[in-house]
Amino acid sequence: MERESMEFDVVIVGAGPAGLSTACKLMQLANENNQELMVCVVEKGSEVGAHILSGAVFEPRAMNELFPDWKEKGAPLNLSLIHISEPTRPY
Hints:
two-stranded parallel sheet, extended, alpha+beta
């Protein structure tokens, strides 16, 4: 039986925030250093983000560090939250 194969320099398992940011940062570093790098991200869900970011409150510090121009590029984040206060307790 013949099988198709592909070669990668890096294989990342999981397309959650950590896996995707790792892949993006590796590619940024490779581009900055004029290096060719083959990165593969493997996700078990039906699509990237299938079960991670639904209705989430998003702390953008890591996004700002990884992609300083993400707002200008039109990321679909429409509301800003200034402060989250502690929930009041009923007792």
